[in-house]
Amino acid sequence: MTVQPISGIGATPQAAATRKPAQTLDSEAFMSLLVAQLKNQSPSAPMDTNQMMAQTIQLSMMEKTTEMAANSKEGFSLQMRSAAAALVGQTVNYTLPNGTVGSGIANSVSYSGPVPTVMVGSQSVTLDAVSGVGTSPGPATPII
Q1: Model pTM?
Q2: Each residue's pLDDT expressed in tens, for the chain with a length of 144 residues
Q3: Residue 30 domain-assigned?
Q4: Cα(104)–Cα(38) distance, integer angstroms
Q5: 66: domain CATH number?
């Protein structure tokens, strides 16, 4: 008996979408758990109010710490932008990741990436590659 080969490709089975469980609890999930715990507590052994207050305080502290971290990150980003803008018109020394060293007058700044980029002549230099800044020479003033 001969077996005929199958030609063509049938539909490939699709992988079932897997749900990734959340690794953190937010304040809404915490409050839902707290309400469920209060609803289902035993009348003979009620929930310890000191423990409940401690958990609520811990949640509040965690939220404030997260908020402070976000504000700090935003402040650092604004500080980098301000520092990059201050370089325009200045003589900039830089070292590129490949080891190339250069210098020139910064003529513009781009904020399109996570780190501001300074244009020095035709060279695009990230702010963290800048190794020095000086004033650009101005026009000579005659002494009278």
Answers
A1: 0.54
A2: 666 666 555 555 555 566 666 566 677 887 788 788 878 887 787 778 888 888 888 888 888 998 999 999 999 988 999 999 999 999 999 999 899 899 999 999 999 988 999 999 899 999 999 999 887 665 545 565
A3: no
A4: 68
A5: 2.30.30
Q: Is residue 69 part of a domain?
A: yes
Render the burial of 13-47: b for 16+ CB within 10 Å, e for the rest. Answer: eeeeeeeeeeeeeeeeebeeeeeeeeeeeeeeeee
Listed residue (52, 59, 65, 54) closest to 30, CA to CA: 59
Residue 98 lies in a domain: yes
Number of domains in the chain: 1
Q: Which strands form 91-95's sheet, in the order they lie side by side?
A: 123-126, 117-120, 101-110, 91-95, 130-134
Residue 1 lies in a domain: no
The residue range of the domain holding 88 is: 50-136
